[in-house]
Each structure stands twice: as C-alpha cells, then as structure tokens.
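Continuing the batch. This is chain 6 of the set; chains 1 through 5 are on the previous pages. Same settings as before, nothing changed between runs. Recording input and output for traceability.
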Amino acid sequence: MDASERQAPRLFDEVRRRMRLHHYSLRTERAYLGWIRRFILANGRRHPRTMGAVEVERFLTTLAVEGGVAASTQNQALSALLFLYREVLGIRLPWMDEVVRAKRPARVPTVLSRREVAALMAGMDGRAGVVARLLYGTGMRLMEGLRLRVKDVDFIRNEIVVRDGKGGRDRRTVLPATLAGPLQAELERARVLHRGDLEDGFGAVWLPHALARKYPSAAREFGWQYVFPALRRSRDPRDGVVRRHHLDDAVVSRAIRRARRAAGIDKPVSAHTLRHSFATHLLEDGYDIRTIQELLGHKDVATTQVYTHVLNRGGRGVVSPLDPGRAPAAAGRGSP
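Output for chain 6:
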C-alpha cells in the first residue's frame, strides 16, 4: 500500500466494494484503482471531493500529451474517474458529462492467413496450444477461453456456451470437432486436480454474482470447475480464500510470441489476432455476417463489418493495372 492509499484507505475500500457490487472483473478493479491513485498523486494527494473539471481535464491532457498514451488508455482513465465521482462519491457534476472521450482511430485488424495460422499452431503444444486452437476455432477472447467452465462445453451439440462475455452477455459458439479429443484430455486433467483438491479440503472454485451464496454446493461440483485450471492453488485477492484459479493468460501470450518467432511471421500476433482470423476466414468461406456477429458476441453488426475488408483480395478486390490480364473496363464507361 503506497502513500496515496494510506492517506485515504476508506476511499479505496469503498471503490473496491462498489466495483464488486457492480460485478466488475478483478482486472478492471485493479486498473481503476491504479488510475484513481495516479489522479490523487498527480494533484498533491488532495481528496477527489476537493477537485473538479480542471483537475480531471488536466490529468487526461497530461496523459495524452506528455505520456503519449493511446486513446483507449485515456478513455479507461476517464471511465475510472467517472466511476469514482458517480458511483463512489455520489457526485453527479454537469462537467462530467462534458468531458470529451478521446476518439479511437479506426484500425484494420491484423489477420493471419490460413498458412500462417497453421505455421503458428505447429509451433505450439501442450495446454497453451490447446487454448490457442480453441481461440482460433471458436472466435473466443483469451479470457473467455481461460474462464471456460466444464459445464459449458457440449460435446453432443458441438457447441460452447460463453458466459458473461464482453458487455455481460452470454452466447453460443461452435466447438471444433478436431478439438474434441484435446478438450476431453483437458477435462480429465481438471478432474484429477479437482479430486485431489477435494481430498485436501479445498475444491471450491470462485463463482460470480453471489452464486456461491445462492447455490452453496455448486462451487465444489466438477461442472463449475475451469476447463484449464492452474497447476497450483493460490490465495484469491478478493476474499483471501485459497482456491484453484484458471491458467494464467501470460502463459498463453508467451507461447504465442515464441511460436510467431519460430514460424517466421513478421506481423504482430496476439491471442486476439486469432479471433480476428476466425472471423475473417469465416467470411472468406461465405458465412453470413449476422451469423459471425452472433458467434463473436458483437452487439452491433457494424463492429463485425470491419472484417469485410478481406472478403476479396487486398485493395478491396481491385486488380492493379500493373498486373497482366487485368479486368476489362466496366461496361458503359467512356474513355477519358
């Protein structure tokens, strides 16, 4: 705990309490607390109640101008301060609605070709390899894959239920037939670990949204366990209880980076690149964009339409005049 948190422990405790009441993830909680702490330190450790629009706008401007942060980072800082003032301090000031969010530049997602995906997967084995194949084969986000529960894998219907995805929405996606065997092996590994945890007096997994109170025995049932459990138990920072968490996302990210280098792929590749590639390859195969929207869990089809840039080959399907056998001029066009 640093000086800023010692100064106002009740404020930070209340931020945590309110965020958990609203079911924010632990990652978001840490990020918001970090931004609130930086905001207080940047203003001489003054209490947020004594500050307003001037201090908030100066803080955000400093991040962008001197810190050179991305628009998404600046917007996260603003969201943290909005949560602090509105939800924790109960202050709804008019200027809070007038603070302009940084506009995120439109970017074309990085997409791997099918050959590049095959080369990447060839360099990945073990549990990280199964996770990477799952992300590419289903379009799931990395944390959605790691938080997957045993009960949400349906081998009979060949589908996976993604619970509490981005925006708090559930959805269904396809279960690749080629992953049935590897996933069954992962479930058997999870079963062995869970059985050992129960014998040692543990075995209760973390459950969201107060489900542990509503269903007291559910946390110890195998169906609620993670498909990709961590190899060791650890103490949960939210409540101090020792549990078996899921596989660390850093393990998968490091494995992807190593495989990218080994495959000689010069593009930047992350777990999210596999999700982009999933959507793009489905579009290339002729699947309807609305279907892909549902599989990805996008609220608006406009988000999914970013992948239509690869429906044809590069340059929007235009054949360069430098290439031989280029397409003839469209009928009805006159010469210049």
